[in-house]
Structure formats: structure tokens, C-alpha cells
Specification:
This protein is mainly α. Helix content is 47%, strand content 4%.
């Protein structure tokens, strides 16, 4: 499974909407999301329309309009978003739960490749379905606060300057280890 640019941008936009909700910002315009994430506006508009059609976001038209999450962030799993945008999580069709396709192998039941890819699919799905948007938002906000980075979409940031204010500081990568990720941020005692 490889996350497409469309999938990546969709998740980044949803995380931003989750952050906006946490800092008390009810609606965010596509242009603000695009500027903050440095995504082409037209492409993000298409993605937001798809996310709206799939029930992940709601929109309000007009000068003071914008987008917001349609459900609480805790009810939106990362896996559900990835499946909508990029399709099945399985690396090969014969192990997919949502889009099974018979493979060319003459003995699917005893196929070692299929068994291996089933483990890969289960590991990917297990992680992406375990974490909600709220989990990712929580970790993001925690790290931003720890590093004293201004929170996007908060009253302290003037619309149109979100990306500029956030990009003035380069991320400190000195504390990252190869095994760190969302799990280690949510559960500090977690180790592989």
C-alpha cells in the first residue's frame, strides 16, 4: 500500500480541521488549508468535495463559510479515510477484505506469498483502523505545544499567515528515533 498525494492531502486537511475544532475555530476555508499545507487550492477543493460526498466533512457557503468535520474526530478512523481515497489497504487483491480478487495462483489456500501479504494487510489495517483522527490531532497538538509552535487556526494567528508563521521554525528532528511514530507519542512506554 502506498498513500497517494490525494490520500496524503485528504488526511492532512482532516487533521487540520480537527485541530481547528480543538482550538475553537468552527469553520476553515479551503484557501487557508491550502496555504497552511502548501497544497494547490484547486486540487484541495476536489479532495474536499470528495470528503464531503463521503460524509467526512460538512461545508457552509458564503464569505464566512468553510469546512468542518461532519463527525467527531474520535469517530473517524485513518483507515476509513485511506480506503475512501486510495482504495483497499491490501497489497494484492486476494487478501483484500473489501475488494477481494482471485489471484492467478493455482493453490490460493497454500500460497506462501498470499500468507505473507495477508500479514502485511492485517498489520496495515490494524494500525490505520486503530487510530482515529482525534488521536492524530492530540499528538500533533501535544508536540506543537511542547515545541512552543503557534497553534494553527487559533485566534493568535491571522488568516492568511498560518503557513508563514508555522514555517518560520524548522522541525527539531534530533529527538526522533527510527522506531518512533504515533504509537510512541500516544504511549511513551511503547517499544517495538
Amino acid at each position: 500500500m502506498k498513500l497517494s498525494k490525494k490520500g496524503e492531502y485528504a488526511l492532512r486537511a482532516l487533521i487540520d480541521l480537527g485541530i481547528a475544532a480543538e482550538v475553537g475555530r468552527p469553520l476553515v476555508q479551503v484557501s487557508e488549508l491550502a496555504e497552511k499545507e502548501q497544497i494547490p487550492v484547486k486540487f484541495l477543493e476536489q479532495i474536499m468535495q470528495l470528503l464531503k460526498e463521503e460524509g467526512f466533512v460538512e461545508s457552509r457557503r458564503g464569505k464566512f463559510g468553510g469546512y468542518r468535520l461532519a463527525s467527531p474526530a474520535a469517530k473517524i478512523t485513518v483507515g476509513s479515510v485511506v480506503r475512501v481515497i486510495d482504495g483497499p489497504l491490501a497489497p494484492i487483491g486476494c487478501v483484500s477484505h473489501t475488494a477481494y480478487e482471485k489471484c492467478s495462483c493455482p493453490d490460493e489456500v497454500h500460497c506462501g506469498l498470499r500468507m505473507l501479504m495477508l500479514d502485511v494487510r492485517n498489520a496495515i489495517a490494524g494500525i490505520l483502523d486503530r487510530y482515529s483522527l482525534a488521536d492524530v490531532v492530540e499528538v500533533t497538538l501535544r508536540k506543537m505545544r511542547r515545541d512552543d509552535v503557534p497553534l494553527p487556526f487559533s485566534a493568535a494567528l491571522v488568516p492568511g499567515r498560518a503557513a508563514q508563521r508555522l514555517s518560520t521554525r524548522s522541525p527539531d528532528r534530533s529527538d526522533l528515533k527510527p522506531v518512533e511514530g504515533l504509537l510512541s507519542q500516544l504511549f511513551p512506554d511503547y517499544s517495538i
